[in-house]
Specification:
The structure is a single chain. The protein has 155 residues and is mainly alpha-helical. The chain has nine helices and no strands.
Length: 155
């Protein structure tokens, strides 16, 4: 464990993931195991680790914390780790699904589209960027926003 710890963005990514464990008001043994593995595998400082351990016990607002995740790759990884956590107990509860949908919307409203697609190894024409900006103003479709974007540009 380093004295410095992980970046502020990555730390907040993990805080938001940990906050999701409280979404259905039950922190399962499987979710706890997932969080303990994260604590052991990341290079958190002592202070960061202490805050995360507290977040395991005391519910936080995942949306509020998620807005502090500034690095695009941390935001992308958040959704990966969040789904791993939420599925770890074999039950993706309705409350959890609703929170994830709301967080995807926040992410899309604040995401740097160029950076998202660069991280995916894609490039966009200006016209396609305009379509995305317009699409993000509307309600999110079934299947999630990422599936929508993939389908939108698959043709």
């Amino acid at each position: 464990m380093s004295a410095k710890g992980v970046s502020e963005s990555r730390f907040n990514m993990w805080r938001a993931v940990f906050a999701l464990s409280h979404a259905d008001h039950v922190v399962t043994d499987e979710e706890q195991k997932f969080m303990f593995r994260a604590l052991a595998s990341e290079d958190f400082s002592s202070a960061q680790k202490e805050i995360l351990e507290q977040d395991m016990r005391i519910a936080q607002d995942p949306a509020r914390i998620f807005t502090r995740v500034s690095d695009q790759s941390d935001r992308t990884q958040f959704f990966y780790f969040a789904r791993m956590l939420l599925w770890s107990d074999g039950d993706f509860a309705r409350q959890e699904q609703e929170i994830m949908t709301a967080l995807e919307k926040v992410h899309l409203e604040t995401a740097n589209i160029d950076e998202v697609y660069k991280n995916m190894g894609l490039t966009l024409e200006e016209e396609q960027k305009d379509w995305l900006r317009e699409d993000m103003k509307h309600e999110q479709p079934k299947g999630g926003v990422w599936q929508y974007f993939i389908d939108r540009f698959r043709d």
